[in-house]
Design a protein that fits this description.
heterotrimer, A mainly alpha (about 300), B alpha/beta (about 350), C alpha/beta (about 350), A: about 300 residues, about 70% helix, B: alpha/beta, Rossmann fold
């Protein structure tokens, strides 16, 4: 009787050929479907971004416009009502509009500062980890020096030197924050350097730059993304703190930190002045943090799923 | 078996083609002389320790031949592999590949040299970048050889065919492949730069037994077609017996026996080799005889015994063994062995 | 910590009679939750081990051999579980009655050593403490007695300078030494059965020989039964009286060692032996390899799990999963449709001749 497998060869054609792995987007959507918290956070982040970009369309009024009827008869801010959905501030400006434009400031500062910090941090960390030796020592000591300052104090110190402006706030936060990523990237690169596939590439004769670009950097991306999303939240908080102290984004530009500072003073008579930006800040930071968590889990399986 | 032309395609910076075109047929492809690799470790509050991982080793590999390198942990066999591909630096001695002494090479020459000697690693899971597809991994090797991106796919498919893998695997990631498939991809990647020598560092040790046979067969096929030389490192003697033409047995960083496969396995002259062979469990059974003759453990490479490194465990040890380190000499039987107790061959016999 | 009354208290007091059934594994299946298929990685495995007997369990990755061992110790890693069957220790089903608390029998009546002793030995605790802890808990020995006994134990497994070794941490020792310590701990309470899961796989071959020798000696001395698990047919064939070959979560062949080795009744066993180059005799130009790779488990198609790779498979092999049936000799069984068909079965012997 004929055998069922007449021509088995070493090709291993009987091996179950693995199905192509579900694409990242597919996995992302599936995980969001199962994780309502992450889904909401992500939607909130997207909403915040949209509001920031399209602020003029969302905002009912000009945020810096002082309304003639913005204050009540005895000069107090107006309660939230039909005209001013979140009331007015002690200067007679619409709180809602200021909140929306404040979102723009926060996100702008957050994203740009974090982006800059990431670039600096990755470069410093990767060079330190890969090159090693005295270069690594110098770079890491530099990192340690910056790290030894609490970041907020560091930023405060820098800003008093440079003078407050939106640009300076961004720069100052970036210079304070890069160190965290530099440290992480350095230790990641140190361990990646020893992995056998890097040794294999060196043996093949691949140059150092190519190795960094093709083998090391792609493995850093998940970490970079995660730290960046968390960094955005941190940067927003730092900006708010600087503005709260009056050395952040300069008046009259709307900033949540500034609004909180002001709101604190007027809390007894106009509590909405504090509550509105406060809640906005909390929601923003939470959303970015949770979205960052979800992103970690999403990206990690690619590296941790590898047949261990 | 169809004899395909060598995978080497003429191109920028191509290494010499196989089978010694225009080269002396009798000169070995690899000639290692008195290789020493010592590591100095400085520890706080302790004296500088010298770890003699490789302590004066010489061997040759001819074109198209397989030299097996056997030994247990601490023997130095993996260090030799890493030194040959210049991951470690030799402390002394010379490594000559295709006529060029690599120990004195500078960076540009080293780049060129790197292509001549490639390595397949023990861990099939870590030696491939998990974020690169098979096509990209092999393509990396092709790029080093100067093959243009456009030809990558075609050349990769040809290489996969050579290691008996279906072309459809090009877009797979390592974690979608089995251990045996991954090792074959590693072999294909090594072949991509058209090396003269491939070092297999325990390349099949981590594979299932039935898969090992597949990979070993593929290696033999490649050798028949392309005349690549192998330095096959393994602790598994039966694998070496199958694949190696000549064998070198290492102990504590030194060569203790060196000869053809049939000489070393069939008529061993060094007591360590004999003990090693006796310790291999065979399916046929021992027939009730004792399993071992060897007690104790391999020595700490930082603190080697005086004289012959094996003397503390050797059943034949005499005073001379404690005092003098035996040189590798030709013994009766034809192979070289480093043992005071093994009778030398009469002067004038042909060397291995 | 109160010492739990060991199950079979007095097991080491009463003389062990060869031939007593110690462990019976009955229709055990182990499965892991899986979106597709049954998720079974061990399928309907049954076998038994008598006192003092040495049984070998051979298989490659995915065969289910390690999980079978863990099922016996009731140490299946979550989220897996034993979905079917039972394990009987001296006639009592494990997990019920006197054996409900694993502390009464795990480590005492039934002990296990694994491939990597660094995972069974706590790297942060001194060796002396780990050995004496066992003695203290299960034998209620006082501190001084336990220490003395520990030194004895370490000496009996061939550790040089056992007194000093008591104060070492496991990482200081070599692999062979660690395995000896693990063995000492495992036999310290005179178990009826010792499960050794790939105990020598990570050791050098000369050290492997030493450890196997030790295993042989110690178990003969105490009449301990051994279940030796390995992917290395040579190791198992050398050591064991009986062999069990696993493939695809099932036992595909079982019988006395010399029977299975000399007259394999399953094509997988035969092909496995043929794919290992021997140390003596003529070597083939190419090794007889089995194409494809072993199944990973969880999803099983109808029919014999080896059929896709089997060179002598026939249509019936794809349709029906063969049962483990004995050959003409009483003890030798194989799960292959070729059993009983002399002509078909004869093809098995032809495998591996290249």
């Amino acid at each position: 009787m004929a055998t069922v497998n007449p021509a088995l060869d070493e090709l291993g054609t009987t091996e179950p050929l693995a199905v192509a792995e579900p694409r990242l987007l597919h996995r992302a959507l599936v995980s969001l479907w199962h994780d309502p918290v992450a889904l909401i956070s992500l939607l909130v982040v997207v909403a915040l971004a949209l509001v920031a970009i399209l602020a003029p369309y969302f905002s009912p009024y000009n945020p810096n416009h002082i309304f003639l009827n913005g204050l009540s008869a005895d000069g107090a801010p107006i309660h939230p009502d039909g005209t001013f959905l979140l009331g007015t501030d002690p200067n007679g400006r619409d709180v809602l509009s200021r909140l929306i434009y404040g979102d723009r400031v926060s996100l702008l500062v957050g994203v740009v500062a974090t982006g800059l910090a990431s670039v600096i941090g990755v470069i410093v960390g990767a060079i330190a980890g890969y090159v090693g030796g005295i270069v690594e020592s110098i770079l890491m000591r530099l990192t340690d020096v910056v790290l030894s300052f609490p970041i907020l104090l560091f930023c405060i110190a820098l800003i008093t030197v440079t003078g407050p402006s939106t640009r300076n706030v961004v720069l100052v936060i970036a210079f304070g924050y890069w160190t965290y990523l530099a440290r992480i990237v350095r230790s990641l690169v140190l361990s990646l350097k020893e992995r056998e596939f890097v040794t294999a590439a060196r043996t093949l004769g691949v140059g150092h730059v190519k190795i960094l670009r093709r083998h090391i950097l792609p493995h850093l991306v998940p970490t970079i993304i995660v730290y960046s999303t968390l960094g955005i939240a941190t940067s927003i908080l730092i900006e708010a703190s600087l503005s709260y102290l009056g050395i952040g984004v300069p008046v009259p530009e709307a900033s949540w930190g500034q609004m909180i500072s002001q709101g604190q003073q007027y809390f007894q008579i106009a509590p909405w002045l504090l509550i509105a930006p406060g809640i906005a800040l909390i929601i923003t930071v939470l959303a970015f943090n949770l979205a960052g968590d979800w992103l970690t889990d999403l990206l990690d399986p690619v590296t941790t799923e590898i047949g261990r | 078996m169809n004899k395909e032309p060598a995978v080497t395609a003429p191109g920028k910076g191509t290494a010499a083609t196989y089978a010694g075109a225009g080269r002396d047929h009798f000169a070995p492809i690899v000639d290692v002389r008195d290789l020493e690799v010592h590591f100095r470790s400085r520890r706080a509050l302790r004296a500088v320790q010298t770890v003699k991982a490789v302590d004066g080793v010489s061997f040759t590999i001819a074109a198209g031949e397989t030299l097996g390198l056997a030994g247990e942990s601490g023997s130095g066999k993996s260090t030799i592999a890493r030194t040959l591909v210049r991951i470690n630096r030799p402390t002394a001695g010379s490594v000559t590949v295709a006529g060029e002494d690599t120990t004195r090479m500078r960076r540009d020459d080293l780049r060129r040299y790197r292509r001549r000697m490639q390595m397949v690693y023990q861990d099939p899971y870590d030696s491939l970048d998990p974020r690169m597809t098979v096509l990209e991994a092999i393509g990396e090797g092709l790029s080093v050889r100067g093959v243009t991106r456009a030809s990558h796919r075609r050349d990769t498919e040809r290489l996969l065919d050579r290691v008996k893998l279906p072309a459809s695997l090009v877009s797979r990631y390592p974690h979608q492949l089995s251990g045996g498939q991954r090792q074959r991809v590693s072999i294909a990647r090594a072949l991509a730069v058209s090396p003269e020598v491939i070092i297999c560092d325990e390349a099949v040790a981590a594979l299932d037994v039935s898969i090992r046979a597949q990979v070993l067969n593929v290696l033999k096929d490649i050798q028949d077609d392309l005349k690549v030389s192998y330095l096959f490192i393994s602790h598994d003697l039966s694998t070496l017996r199958f694949i190696a033409d000549r064998v070198a047995i290492m102990y504590a960083g030194r060569l203790v026996e060196y000869g053809t496969s049939s000489q070393v396995f069939g008529d061993s002259r060094h007591p360590y080799t004999k003990a090693l062979i006796a310790a291999v469990p065979t399916i046929g059974g021992r027939g009730g005889g004792p399993r071992i003759g060897l007690s104790g453990e391999p020595p700490d490479p930082a603190r080697l015994p005086s004289g012959c490194a094996f003397h503390p465990r050797c059943p034949l040890a005499q005073d001379i063994c404690r005092a003098d380190r035996p040189a590798l000499r030709q013994k009766q039987g034809g192979q070289m062995a480093a043992c005071h107790m093994a009778p030398d061959a009469p002067a004038g016999e042909a060397s291995v | 910590m109160a010492s739990s009354t060991p199950f079979l208290a007095g097991a080491d007091a009463s003389p062990v009679r060869s031939g007593d059934l110690v462990v019976a594994v009955e229709h055990v299946s182990v499965s892991f939750p899986s979106p597709v298929g049954t998720g079974e990685v061990v399928r309907d495995v049954s076998f038994s081990i008598n006192a003092g007997e040495r049984v070998g369990l051979v298989g490659e990755s995915g065969s289910g051999k390690s999980l079978t061992a863990r099922a016996m110790m009731r140490l299946i890693p979550k989220p897996g579980r034993m979905s079917q069957g039972r394990i009987l220790l001296d006639g009592v089903e494990l997990g019920t009655g006197p054996t409900a608390d694993p502390g009464t029998w795990r480590g005492t009546a039934m002990a296990m050593i694994t491939q990597d002793p660094l995972s069974s030995l706590n790297p942060l605790v001194r060796i002396g403490v780990q050995v004496t802890e066992m003695l203290h808990r299960h034998r209620s020995l006082g501190r001084r007695e336990a220490r003395a006994r520990a030194v004895e134990l370490l000496a009996s497994v061939g550790i040089p300078d056992p007194q000093r070794t008591l104060s070492y941490f496991p990482a200081v020792l070599s692999g062979g030494m660690r395995q000896r310590v693990a063995l000492a701990i495992a036999i310290s309470c005179n178990p009826r059965l010792l499960i050794a899961d790939e105990p020598t796989t990570s050791l050098d071959v000369t050290i492997q020989a030493q450890v196997l020798d030790l295993l042989e000696r110690m178990t003969a001395q105490h009449g301990t039964g051994v279940l030796l698990i390995s992917h290395d047919l040579g190791v198992v064939a050398d050591f064991c009286d009986r062999l069990l070959v696993m493939y695809g979560g099932r036992i595909v062949e079982s019988g006395p060692t010399f029977e299975v080795i000399d007259h394999p009744a399953h094509p997988y066993t035969r092909a496995l032996m043929a794919s290992v180059p021997s140390m003596t005799g003529r070597l083939p130009d190419r090794l007889a390899s089995i194409p494809g790779s072993p199944p990973i488990g969880g999803v099983w198609s109808k029919g014999c799990s080896f059929a896709p790779r089997c060179p002598i498979a026939r249509p019936v092999c794809r349709d029906e999963d063969p049962l483990l049936v004995t050959q003409d000799q009483g003890d030798h069984a194989a799960a292959c449709h070729a059993t009983g068909d002399t002509q078909w079965r004869a093809l098995i012997d032809g495998l591996g001749a290249s």
